[in-house]
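Q: Could you fold this chain for me?
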Amino acid sequence: MDKKPPNDLLYTVLNSLNHAVAIIQSNGEVSYGNEAFYSLLDGGSPKTIEEITQLYDLNINDFSAIFKRCGEMHVCESCHIKHLVDERLSGVSKDETVSYCYLSPERKALEFWFKPLPDDQVLMTFYDIRNRATSDYETKEEEQRLKDYATAGADWFWQIDKDFRLNFCTDDLFEFLDVPRKVILGKRFSDFADNHELKRHAEKWKDLSEKLENHKPFKSFEFSIPLNDGRLLHLSLSGVPIFDNSGGFTGYRGGANNVTDRVEAKSYLAQSEKQLRLFLESSPVGASMSSVEDGSMVYCNPRLAEMLGYDLGELFGKRTLEFYADPNARKKMLKLLVENGEAIDQEIDVKKKDGSHIAVSLTLKNAVFKDKDVILAWVYDVSKRVEADRIIRESERRLRDIAESASDWFWEADQEFRATYVSERFLELVGLPAEEVLGSKSLEDLGFISDFDDDDELIKFKAQVIAQKPFSEAPYFLDDPMGNRHYVQFSGKPVFDVKGEFQGYRGAGREVTQLVETQKKLEKAAHFDALTDLPNRRYFNEYILKIVAKIKRNKRLGAMCFLDLDGFKKVNDEIGHDAGDYVLQSVAQRLVAAVRKSDFLARIGGDEFVLVIEEQADRATVEIVVKKVIESISSPYSFDGQSVSIGVSVGIALIDEDGDENAEQVLKRADSAMYKAKKQGKGTYVFDD
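A: Sure. Below is the predicted structure, expressed as structure tokens.
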């Protein structure tokens, strides 16, 4: 198929179109398609109407009906939508353009336009309706956007005819002016303008008249309208000429903004200049204006003269560079001024008339005064504050030196308990740089873990901190980067400002690692068996009371198992005490491996052990645990090349959650059951029911 029609001009025109166009022969062949046509068909090259319908899943008979109406080809009388097509085409002459829409089963919406051409051809234009719908939506959206812009950009809207007489104005303008429509409609702008305005600004009105006569747009034309209450309404008009379809001038339309506030503010500003000068003359802040050209001072107020030790007249004409104590400070100020147009609150030293220096906070800004570039300066005397800051810094330095030389370390935290200061000794202890410590939300964020004896103590401590109360020797521990554990104690006191508002905490801390480790060694020696490392009889006596009470309090079943080794005396007598010690250590290790982590083990005598089961202590579970213990202990031991065999007898006393017996009574029942197991042949277990 030749994509180029014989007429080069037609080819150029058709290819410039954004919509798809094709020329169809009477036999249904496509003789030409423009670039948009092939783009719509995803780059395909259909040669006939039938191939096009296959691409879009259309009914070829639909096209046949349309071509029949154009008198170009025969139509199958059995076409199932022929009556719809004929109805669409009825009353349309052969010279008119015909459109037809079809929705395929795949929901592809297309619109086709047909126009008969000479030589039995048809010009077909079509496109996807969905794209048009999107375009329509965007157009409506754009129209709404323009309406919004117009509404936002003007207070009122107006229109004048070709004789420049007002024929439309938004209703709210009449309401604002509190006049009937007839007072304004039909008049020119100059008819209801202020007479004084017309005389004083005749040139401005002449310029507007020329623009109107020449049909030129105008913008921001300001004039005044006298109101009934004697005030003036100041309006700013902008308008564009209107032309009809033939290009004939029909008038203007545009918007009007109420600029009364701005005009009155400008007038008020002129009136307030005297007050501004009075303010500068009596201001406690030094002020000056200097020329950008040579740096000479063209204005200064009395406060600046007093601050620098001059009479007011002596400062005029002096160059500002003479007052900088440090030339580098002047360079810095000028650099900020060039880069940013201002230099705000820069603290520098300036020279007084007697040669002494004074600390000031200097602000410079670029400005224009009487068409000349100037630099405005505001000078605040901060010498007293600078001296006070120096004294405070010196005091802080002394306190910090004391803190760094003390054996303890000091800390401060804000309202959210984030560290804001810690002494160097603490940083050495944790092995962290200051930036990783400061700003942490809490002690836990620094790697600390509570070392309170129980949860109740921890909860009580946190409640004390939340209540903003002092605390003392709160125990914590941490691991440094080398893995060494350090025990510390914190003491803190809440800090409040002069208004009584909580500001945070301040306090001290110290390392107590050596003390804690010594206490733990003493505690272990007192409560743990040196040979087996299991809790001893003393620990058991203290702990068992808590266990039994806990079981009863939580209303659950528990069990106490009394274990006595079988044949252990023979090991001591025949092989020796070294062998006996080895067997006891091995028994302890096997017991630990055989029972659960939640179970409690203790050695309460020479070859006597106690196992307390707190969780899931029903009879079946206890039997499983005890059988595993007996099996483990009864396996042979090897000592110095000799095989040693022992056994174990177990007495079991269930702890009734509803019972009223104490721990000692439960232990006696378990001991009694153990002796029954011994009598039954050893190496077994018996429940004391």
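A (continued): The longest helix spans residues 129-153.
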